[in-house]
Amino acid sequence: MATWRRDGRLTGSQRLLCAGLAGALSLSLTAPLDLATVLAQVGGARGQARGPWAAALGVLRAEGPRALWKGNAVACLRLFPCSAVQLAAYRKFVVLFTDDLGRISQWHSIVAGSLAGMVSTIVTYPTDLIKTRLIVQNMLEPSYRGLLQAFSTIYQQEGFLALYRGVSLTVLGALPFSAGSLLVYMNLEKIWNGPRERFSLLQNFANVCLAAAVTQTLSFPFDTVKRKMQAQSPYLPHCGGVDVHFSGAVDCFRQIVKAQGVLGLWSGLTANLLKIVPYFGVMFSTFEFCKRICLYQNGYIVSPLNYKLTPGVDQSLKPQELRELKKFLRTEKLKSKKPTL
């Protein structure tokens, strides 16, 4: 059994800020690889040389260096509401799966995380669709000029439901995602030949990267179909650059296999896997640095450059409790200094 814990020394807003900044920086640094993945999935790289860099190099030559970050601003803006919804949903699901002793099994923890991710993705799905549209369009002749204009244009031309085109693939993709997470977790002790409690930071980082590689590989066909459905539009040049014609999700699967074979469902996987290590590396290091700044600001550590604890501070106190305690001690100290008659 595993107990669901979080660092109580940070406030909810601080945790959200740390996660948002870490996510935005990691997304920005790996944006060219994400662009190559999406274009390969949609079909924008068709006819070019094979490889993870083919689509990105094609965009670089045709549209300039700035085009490698198409859609990244929307992806970064999406992080904060997505993280907030996911955190709130995760708390609700954890409470639902927690037993009377306050413990939750690892399987239930994985399911809670998957369900929370699914809820946050569905709530913020229109921004993900707009990100895909911004990536597949030509910056020199854009159909959309930003998040709000894209939202308004898609709504007026294609209707509200068009903003949720492909959302069912998100739900279906959660099943292999959860199965992959459980598969990795169940074999961690065999991989490292030791108990989970003794894993080092480097081992835990490797575990996250391994889990991400396995889960994304298993759920990638659903993501590929989702990207094609998001990009397809009769109002875009060449129907959004989609390389197959289809009438729905099932037909999209069928047409991809018919035109490209089964491996066509994994087009762009290499670029996607290449971004895992830098993505999570930047995310973890940035999150830890932001966390140290917050802990220093809250008075738990002596410097934001390390985790040396502040002497005499009870680390089990929450930020509000610690502030109230400091305020009380200052008041008592002032009282003791007042002259008595």
Automatic annotation (TrEMBL):
Recorded topology in the membrane: Multi-pass membrane protein
Location of the protein in the cell: Mitochondrion inner membrane
Coiled coil: none
Keywords: Membrane, Mitochondrion, Mitochondrion inner membrane, Repeat, Transmembrane, Transmembrane helix, Transport
GO cellular component, one term: mitochondrial inner membrane
Top-level division of the source organism's lineage: Eukaryota
Main subcellular location: mitochondrion
GO annotation (BP), single: transmembrane transport
InterPro entries: MCP, MCP_dom_sf, MCP_transmembrane
Transmembrane intervals: 162-185, 205-222
Pfam families to which the protein is assigned, alphabetical: Mito_carr
Family: Belongs to the mitochondrial carrier (TC 2.A.29) family.
This protein's name: Solute carrier family 25 member 43
Naturally occurring in which organism (per UniProt): Cavia porcellus (Guinea pig)
